[in-house]
Request: fold
Amino acid sequence: MTFACGIDFGTSNSSVGVCDADGPRLLPVQDGATSIPTALFFSFDDHSTTFGDEALGRYFAREPGRYLRAIKSVLGTRLFEEGTRVRHKRHSFGDIIAAFLRFLRSAAGETLGELPTHVVIGRPAFFVDDDPAADAAAQHQLEAAARTAGFSNIAFQFEPIAAALDYERSVAAEEIALVADIGGGTSDFSVVRVSPERARSSDRRKDILGFTGVHIGGTDFDRQLALARVMPALGLGSRLKRKGLHAPAWYFHDLATWHRINFLYAPKVLAEVRGVLRDSAEPEKIERLSRVLQQHKGHELLAAVEAAKIELSGSDLVALHSGVVAVDLEVRRAELEAAVADSLQRLHSRIEDVQRMAGLAPGAVSAVFLTGGATRMPCVRECIASAVPDAKLIVGDAFGSVATGLALDAGKRFGER
Reply:
């Protein structure tokens, strides 16, 4: 028997699905949860490596160790080749990603009774914008990591196409749908012809009328909100004693970027920040930055920003809760919307692009299927709706639609033999 699964390896969250005679289903990955944070924690106490919610819990329990998140974002970049240091050992990102995929494979095996050997892995329309060579390298790196994790037969499917396969299960007649998958690291859009009859076909290439994507997602919204609302309190834009000079901006941009935070803890950087503190005309702000870096609280700070972003989906004003920065901050929804406005405009343009690629007349798209955690943000939904004003918005499983579609694809490609 061939055990095949679909894996949605996301920037923020990951899931596993399988498809059998009863249809597709998501598998429990950790403590019954079918979606877990794409995170790892290397413990300095017992030298173990933990994943998902357990990694998150150990980090926030302030156990000594190294926390990694958004590891998908390094695929196809120079950071992938550089690797990262954990205490006295340098780890390659290929091995780190393989370890996370191995954890997902083992979790699936516990439910299935045998480790899956075949897999369809989701991939964004573009791992890297406007760089086909880097994009191809990213898929090759992910494939190599999956092979290291123990998979022998590996295929890829575009994440918005996978989400379309999930949506198609609910349609009663043929229609043209736009699938908007706004995840943690990328936003992908596909225009697909769906119907109950077409769902039975194993070759759907002619039904994919167009697809595109851009490297914008929930982690970018975290970064933009942090830069606009939090980093000024830590010294972004603050004056130095020398007239006309300001504190270097790159510290704050890295601190607001999930996969770059750990690089700020290097002794060389900490020494540089102490030098900036001596030269600062606003030392109380740089002192806050220094304290965050010395105590390795960058992820905790950005997690508070992320939590505020999520809470603003249901409120117009929220308090940014973080004991790391000794200032009280409130964030308004309007401030979040202003911070992400440029990104939303880029999303709007990509939706217009994919409709042109598909050669569609105005109003041809009858439904928009939303998936990915960032589609919960009201401003994101409004952006999408404004680009396809005549279509109905249908909300899918934010963290499960892609994995479900990948499981359907895996079932068709590999089946159970």
Notes: The longest helix spans residues 93-112. The chain is about 40% helix and 20% strand. Residues 72 and 231 are 25 Å apart (CA to CA). The domain at 4-171+398-413 is CATH 3.30.420.40 (Nucleotidyltransferase; domain 5).
